[in-house]
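Forwarding these from the shared drive since the link keeps breaking.
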Amino acid sequence: MHQLYYLARGLDLGEQKIRDPEHHNPAATTIAEAWLWPVLLALAQSNLLRSNELSQLFSALEQWRSQASIIQVAGDGSIQVDLFADHPLRKTDQEPSGEHVLTISTDSLA
């Protein structure tokens, strides 16, 4: 999933609007927002949730993902994702090391 998003960014498609008939909300979203949805779900440790809690979170993230942002400078509480790695996400205040490491800010969700 991360490598597909990296490819989309490399082709300048990250902010292109797409429609997905499977979403509850018929509005078009960007490829970046579509990628952020499962990333935010992973941050919530969804494997520890009950099925009804997971369903509520899944629906909420459909709206909240547009409030998370990919930023250039790491800050308190930011999360880094290495698009080439299979390891879990990590919280950090270090600067990204390479174009394949993205920093996600969830400050507006807190």
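-- next protein --
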Amino acid sequence: MPGDSVNRLVARLEQWRDRFGSGEVRRLEKLLDSCARHQFTDLSSLIRFHETLLFLRAFPQSPGVVARAEKLLNSFHRRIEALQSRDVDLAPLDTFELSGIAGTTMEDTLSFDVLRWLVRHIPRNVEILWDQYEEERAMAATWPRFFPLLEEDAYVEANIPWRRWLSTASGGSRPLPWLIRQFERSPYSPREKTELYDSLRLPVSWKLENLKISRTRNWAHPPAIHYHRTPLTVRGEVDLQTELARPSPVLKRLSLVQGRVVMDRIREVMLVRYRELYGTTLGDPRSVVRANVGRGVVIHLWSLPPDRRLPLRAYLASFTLKNGVPINYIEAIGLCEWIEVGFNTFYTFRKGETAWIYAQALRCLCAHTRAKCISVYPYQLGQNNDEALESGAFWFYRKLGFRSGLPELRSLTEREEQRIRKNRCYKSPLRVLKQLAQGHMFYELPGSDRGAWDRFSVRNLGLRVNRKMAEQFGGDGTRFRKVCAMTVSRALGWRSANTSSEEERAFEDWALVLSQIPGLAGWTRQDKSDLVKMIRAKAGTSERYYLRLTQHHARLRRELLRLGSSL
């Protein structure tokens, strides 16, 4: 079919995907049948076709649409291979928006935790990109740990045959998996192994072929599919206050085996999109919970294992399946009743009930954490984030009821809203959106202390601690940590005997902040006891329990707000 005819066919398909009713659905199914019979010689049209198929698989109107979309997606790699055979440039597919299509090859410098997961799952498809690697100093500093007598070559010689060393030591078969095993077997802690490997900055490639981990085929069959018989819910139809007032969703804790399946799934989802999030890479499979919130939407949430947790805040990550298709990921980091939420819907699905699904994600987060103050950080709004600026992220949150934390930004928001009311065609210019993105936005639930967290930042706590270290200890971090731990230990009556290494690390981290509180030793016995219990919970099996304890320590909350709301 000529290129212009294919373009028209895809345009019709895009048009009819948003139409509903029996007659429209039959036309859509016929369009899918027509597309199945045609070859695509134009990469742009093929990309549009691919994204439309994924959208239809997530938001289908009928069983016939699902069946046709799945059949076309399962064989989509052949269309990519056909273009490759014609020497069509596939470089446009190697972007954040379009990466991960079946039949393509991806390239990146992956972290140790992601790469070893990938090597375990598709060892024959992953290889080192030697032609793109020039970090010989890093190899000379690291590899002698694993290669006997490599020092003789690495420390003094030029033009070292690194590939030959690796091939020889590994027996010539699958050298990258062998190298990863050496890091795994090393005597270092998990954090140290990650830091050591990451210092290499080793570029790798992996072939997706027709694997299920590809974005094209990374969907599953849920017990039941929700079919859309009426137009999708748009932002103007979503009242966040009403949604959050609904009964809390049921959060079902998954078994360890089920949790591992979820962790594998989210790593697949992120890997093929060139994304890596702390919690999706290092999530604890023992902590996974699942909520079925209706309309084919299932939300999973989990936390971090004790040895990978943040010093102060509790961490949650999440992702959403729509009819078995992954459509977004979420990061939430909280302290007391305040929780900071990052929400990212994948490009393909941004016209698919995003506001309603976001509301359901917040319902789950609030039910799980009992948070009362939801915060959106500036990057999510557009600070140093062109994608968020272009999508009008600030107004997405504002129209859901969020407000700016800074008075000057609230005034600017009011002026912009007046302009919009006077002129419905008015859109905030880019320079104004950049201004609006310079501060956090907040949504407070009933019963919250309005405005209490407006100027709070964990960064302020960290900078305050570091300033004291510089002023009073000459920047000696080791001595500073030791003195803080001794001071707070005396004040609280902390006993190091019979404590785990994670509990001791949690205590030392908290001691850095607690040492900034005047009169800590004079706190009541109950306040001190509750504080010790909270610190131990930081290293316990459930970080959710730790977060609940921070919510019930009113005196600590007051001090955190005082220390973290200014410098």
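Residues 3-90 form one domain. DSSP finds 26 helices and twelve strands in the chain.

- D.
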